[in-house]
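Quarterly update from the structural biology core.
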Amino acid sequence: MFNIHCLNNISEEGLKLLPEGYNREASYEESHAVLVRSAKMHEMELGEELHAIARAGAGVNNIPLDKCAEKGIIVFNTPGANANAVKEQVLAAMLLASRDLIGGAKWVEENASDPDIAKTAEKAKKAFGGKELKGKKLGVIGLGAIGRLVANACVELGMEVLGYDPYLSVSAAWNISRKVRHISNLEDIYKECDYMTIHVPALDSTKGMVGKEAFAMMKPGAVIINCARDVLVDEEELLKAIEDGIVSKYVTDFANPTVAGKENIIVFPHLGASTQEAEENCAVMAVEEVRDFLENGNIRNSVNYPACDMGVCQAKGRIAVCHKNVPNTISHITAVMGDAGVNICDMTNKSKDDYAYTMLDLEAPSSDELVKKLEAVEGVIKVRIIK
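Predicted structure, tokenized:
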């Protein structure tokens, strides 16, 4: 029996994939795996029986990743599951920044009682004129799951698209339109583009990346779309850039006192992934990741441990070991197996930064005694019997 606890409402489309043998009503304290969306976990206790946390979404700022890694708790996210929803929001943001549709709609509401509103509107509409996206230059900062969808869609809208991503993989590049110009210098986007949209994670190296120096390079009238994280933009400097006419519109998905209600800023209440389809996709992916890990020991889309996949165990036993990424750990683990007279028929070891993960398929069933011996090995964090 696996105990599953949901810290937030998780779509039933995902939860219904949990078969018999999974207890969906478990308390947080007794859970083997936790499903979460936005709940903040940094101050929460992490139980000894907690093996996995799956975030139904891409960002994991609400989860203590280092603390989890130290306790051998695998943290998953669901990259790409909400990408289309965010892409559509970015397109809407660009249109709202270019055409004063919001102002026009408000005018109609305010003049709804005018019996001659149709005639009056013809005179009033000139105040809500705008620009077309076609022919404008767009800079996409980050060409991950969302960024490349945005880039491809804007090519189809007739925009000239520049893409910046120093970590772009070959496989990801195959999914980007040939018409997207991949550039190696971020400054080129700041200097050349009429529109900029940000799609990078919030790291120490990216916080405030669009700041005073970036604004100084931009063409007057630039439009910035931020549906990634508010901390990526230095919003105090942004307000100065708007006042100086450098930035004509800023559209963000993150409401806070700095930007809410300010002129030439459009703020959404974090709606990027708030579609039924995105929530279902994230829930399905999160549950599938948790099941594969709990049942088979496999790791897919972890943010604090390496990817590792040995499929379904066909041997008589399988053990999974979370450990520090230090020399000789593997030899010590296999020595324990040898001393116990247990033959290893297959194994794999993967590492990511300071941590590593090893799976061993055995020719004999695993035992609690063997687990205790493995846990005594220096550098080993957690040992789990899979079969």
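The chain has three domains: 1-82+275-305, 83-267, 310-387.
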